[in-house]
Specification:
The chain is mostly helical. It contains 4 helices and no strands. The protein starts with a helix and ends with a helix.
Length: about 80
């Protein structure tokens, strides 16, 4: 399986139509990457599909930067894998 952080960065870059090198851990979705609320919803849906996880709306609203999203997704994926084991 490819590195989770790289997969998340690729999805974000594709969804927001930005260069991959702009998708840094401290980049804000709205301020730095130009996302609007619809972009954010579509990005979350794509991440959910890619990783087979569910991200509740209240959690999604708290994810302001790429780094926050990556850490959150890593935790969700690891928890899901632990349940499956």
């Amino acid at each position: 399986m490819a590195d989770i952080a790289e997969q998340v960065r690729r999805i974000i870059a594709e969804q927001l139509m930005v260069e991959l090198d702009e998708v840094t851990d401290d980049a804000s979705f709205i301020e730095d990457l130009g996302a609007d609320s619809l972009d954010t919803v579509e990005m979350i849906m794509e991440i959910e599909d890619e990783f087979g996880i569910e991200i509740p709306d209240e959690d999604a609203e708290k994810l302001q930067t790429v780094g926050q999203a990556i850490e959150y997704i890593k935790q969700k994926v690891e928890a899901q894998q632990a349940k499956a084991a």
